[in-house]
From TrEMBL:
Descriptive protein name: D-3-phosphoglycerate dehydrogenase
Provenance organism: Alkalispirochaeta americana
Protein family membership: Belongs to the D-isomer specific 2-hydroxyacid dehydrogenase family.
Domain D-isomer specific 2-hydroxyacid dehydrogenase NAD-binding intervals: 115-297
A family per Pfam: 2-Hacid_dh
Length: 322
């Protein structure tokens, strides 16, 4: 495909994202951290749009994108884009889900999930605060939990769930898994034990969430499910914020049912680069048991350099198929 033919809008700036220049192979690229108002005015001129994860692409925007032929996201998740509206308009949609072999080689999100697991288990925020703010070397009142011989329950045994299971195996933990796909459950390897969701919740010291967001998984961990968990459970969520009921989780922490939350995702993301409107954000400022990171799972130099290049290749392939 020749360059400088298609007009391309990329919501990632080269100064912030290494490797994003790969999109220049597709045509005339505009890099911009846009607003919704800017999009409404300018999106009709673009043939290819690669939106930032912070901005929601609604059906209204897609409807006025009169020249749009391909929309792509350098991620596996796509809940920031109305993909049904794209399909109805006949616009091609590209994501990393189009190349499962490729994304199997990227471990950034799984590694961050394990970082949150360790940080929660060892009460890392309190230890850092003890040294940096209290300027004390006393640690006897901040005892964490050793992972060896503990049980981790992994909900969603896909690409990331499998990676986290391998990390847990390396730490000599018992690994329980639950997945809505019966083939996944029936084909579970001997290193893990496939169990019903109720069993996983009741037996796990740590519950790690990795399902795809859909109507089945939306709100799947709420008051009822938290009540089934062990007292002092740790919950990790690097999937999507909507999988976990924030109010139920906060209530669990405040009652002492949940020992710690490690969250890289929250409800009400994708509105802007501002903090999500989620009660766990406010609580985390004063409660060290709640660790929140800004959806940084895939944010490594290594991952960005790989994914932008691959998404550009997949977009080019879509045009060749037309």
């Amino acid at each position: 495909m020749s360059s400088n033919v298609h007009k391309v809008l990329v919501g990632f700036l080269p100064s912030d994202y290494p490797g994003v220049e790969a999109f220049e192979s597709l045509g005339d690229v505009t890099y911009r951290r846009y607003t919704q108002d800017w999009l409404k005015e300018h999106i009709p001129q673009f043939h290819i749009v690669v939106p930032h994860l912070f901005e929601h692409i609604s059906s209204e925007l897609i409807e006025i994108a009169t020249n749009l032929r391909v929309m792509a996201t350098p991620s596996t998740g796509s809940d920031h884009i109305d993909t049904k509206a794209l399909a109805n308009k006949g616009v091609k949609f590209v994501s990393l889900n189009d190349d499962r072999v490729f994304i199997d080689g990227i471990s950034s999100t799984a590694e961050l999930s394990w970082m949150l697991t360790l940080a929660c288990a060892r009460r890392l925020p309190e230890l850092l605060d003890r040294v940096n703010h209290e300027q004390s070397w006393v640690n006897t009142d901040i005892r964490g939990m050793e992972l060896r011989d503990k049980t981790i329950g992994i909900i969603g045994y896909g690409r990331l769930g499998k990676k986290v299971a391998r990390y847990a195996n390396a730490f000599q933990m018992k690994v329980l898994i639950y997945d809505i796909d019966p083939d996944v459950m029936n084909g579970a390897p001997q290193e893990v034990e496939a169990v019903p969701l109720s069993t996983l919740l009741a037996k796990s010291d740590i519950v790690s969430l990795h399902p795809k967001l859909n109507e089945t998984s939306r709100g799947m961990i709420a008051h009822e499910q938290i009540a089934q968990m062990k007292d002092g459970v740790i919950i990790i969520n690097t999937a999507r914020g909507a999988v976990l009921d924030s109010k139920a989780a906060l209530d669990g922490v405040q009652r002492g049912k949940i020992a710690a939350l490690g969250l890289d995702v929250l409800n009400n993301e994708y509105q802007s680069a501002q903090l999500p409107n989620d009660p766990l954000i406010t609580a985390a400022r004063s409660d060290s048991r709640i660790i929140v990171t800004p959806h940084a799972g895939g944010s490594t130099y290594d991952a960005h350099a790989k994914v932008f290049s691959r998404i550009a290749e997949l977009i080019a392939e879509r045009f060749e198929q037309q």
